[in-house]
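User: If you would, consider this record:
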Amino acid sequence: MTIPAQFNAKETEQKWYDYWMKNNYFHSTPDHRTPYTIVIPPPNVTGVLHMGHMLNNTLQDVLIRRARLKGFNACWVPGTDHASIATEAKVVAKLKSEGINKSDLTREEFLKHAYDWTEKYGGTILEQLKQLGCSCDWERTKFTMDPDMSASVIKSFVDLYNKGQIYRGYRMVNWDPEAKTTLSDEEVIFEERQGKLYYIKYEIVSDYEIQNPKPETQYLTVATTRPETIFGDTAICINPNDERHTHLKGKKAIIPISGRIIPIIEDEYVDLEFGTGCLKVTPAHDMNDKTLGEKHNLEIIDIFNDDATLNSFGLHYQGKDRFVVREEIAKELETLGLVANIEIHTNNIGTSERTKAVIEPRLSDQWFLRMEDLVKPAIKAVLETGEVKLYPSRFNNTYRHWLENIRDWNISRQLWWGQQIPAYFYGDGKEDFVVATSIQEALVLAKSKTNNQQLTTNNLRQDADALDTWFSSWLWPMSVFGGILDPENEDFKYYYPTNDLVTAPEILFFWVARMIIAGYEFSDKKPFNNVYLTGIVRDKLGRKMSKSLGNSPEPLELIAKFGADGVRVGMLLSSSAGNDIIFDEELCNQGKGFTNKIWNAFKLIKGWEVSNCIPQPESSKVAIEWYEAKLQQTLAAIEDDFEKYRISDALMAIYKLVWDDFCSWFLEMIKPAYQQPIDSITFAKAIEMLENNLKLLHPFMPFLTEEIWQTIEHRNVNEALIVSTWPEIKSFNQTLISDFDYVTEVISGIRTIRKDKNIPFKDTIELKIVNNDKASTYFDSVVIKLGNISLLEYVSEKVEGALSYRVKSNEYFIPITGNIDVQAEVAKLTEELNYNQGFLKSVHAKLSNEKFVANAKPEIIENERKKEADALAKIATIEHSLLSLK
């Protein structure tokens, strides 16, 4: 077979992915084997592949392919999330571009448009994952709006409601005026922003002065960052202990512009140190103000429309955006002489995690899930028993903080795209509803509750709101296997709990913790054993990659340029659990270079002529023994790395094994002489070692490894690399490895002298050794071969007039031939000696500087000490060589 000169990634990737799909290697069904299960963090249905997806899914594919090789029944369930807010916004925008307003459509009409949209654009990302090489069980692909998935969500809602865990309440919620829906606390991102603090004057009046003219107008001053909300003020509050405001007790204030009169109340809640000590109370638009309002029985005035424009309470500002009003009302108040001062002020502003809009606190009837009791098993599983482990473990503290300070979860959204809340109203009262899985069941409950048998389904009106997307995806590990609807089904009993979850730290709250909560609530089991939290992919400047910044490369373009294997290696070489990834395209180029290195090594081996008639050289025999030991040492190390989810470290260990040990040393040791055949025993072992390397590499570089595996020899369907067996762990000779590490220094010394003295490799040389260290002679045949030594001899004393070098305490001499100028050599070595002595002096100056040692980072000090050790070793070697020449 003719092997192509270059590895063609594009042709190879399509060929082998089609082959894997055709032979159903990715599909899993329950059998006698131990399952290994991963569920994909479902990307938005209308999403496209980005660098975070690349990293996350490469890691999952590494884990699933390795599990497959290790004999597990590997099942990786893919799917997508309906992403209520994001998808509805896209559909609304599309309709608007066509001259259609959402408000002009019925819910059913809008949902048809939404399904058409997702059918057209949905699932793109899953197809893109195939180009990356992801070996998901595509037959199990799920969508959170699939009928069975939606039924699972509805059933869980009804069950929780019947347990008293879900309730409907009039609460202050986070309102996203762009998406026009509420958000949970976890979907609000606080950002520090610079704004202004406005000191606004309110006229003070008494009950008497309201009826009678005042001789002199008096004012109190309130500091606020939101002057537009004065239309919703229903009181001014002072601290009863504030002596500055004793004269205000029992009086009233007039709201500027509106002229509405409000009471001045007293409460110790008011901070004596902030602003003027007078607090404007707007119960409809601030959580703390609402608490004050309830305590003092204040009126509640909502001044905003759904889109955060002012309503009729805003008088002549009606219909204007809140931020426009803020600027305009400040100018009007200044014109009226009612602004005492304006200061620059920095505070935390809540923004929507999805739309980035500034959140507006708003009172609304919403559905809530009680969390206080639900979280207890989840706290215990991670923080007490360790039944669920987070990697890295430092995220335990973040997890603890969130769960121990959790508030009830607002699970209703003012959207149509999503599972509609299964509450059915039969009257106008707040309690005139029933909760059921269907309208027929709701009718039975409503008749029973009202004792009115005349009710029909026409009398029932389903709540218009949809459920929070996360209320769907928190069931994901269970619902994808039908565990909510039918917990006794075979798939659920076999695959659940799943094994590993790979996801990003930013959804530790939104998704991971909630899945753990749901797992214990609905199945009394953990949803997974381990959570591997990746870092954020950043550019070389440390910025988070995003399309808006223009610093994020197109993943598919990277694959086209460097090959999927090259990109996978490039991503993982820079990735360690929980740490951010500083991505550089050069890493993908390094991955491509590694691909070419392996391909060239394969071509070299397959290019050798094999003979059954020649004996195996001693150098090849010991080379094989060494490499087998080295492979076992690496295998043990990477097993430990996988156990601790150090995937990047595992790849680096394999990278060094293949690049340094296999390509740079092993192949050189067994390579036959020019135009000579290799013995059949060594060749067979070389193929065996190559195949073991391919097995270790396969999870990281699936396409290249399958191509080489199938090219080595014809394989049957059940012999493909993807379903072969992971190398068996065996005991190995550590001494053999240590001895060879020493031998590499000996060979490097010979090569350095050959290079420096321009001695061609074709010319044999002699090597004489003073073995002061009693070093092993086991690899002498390798030294002879790789050094092209005509005579290797152990002597008792140094050889006069020879070039020399040291390895530890052993001395190595290469007798000088007539073509070496001794005087020139002495001059050159003397110059090198002077340079290294000067360098050592500069290092000593740093290390003797107490200020430098006290203030420098430990790694810098360590680096300087390494420089010192290296310089001392070089000086000793040069001095020894000079003595030999004199």
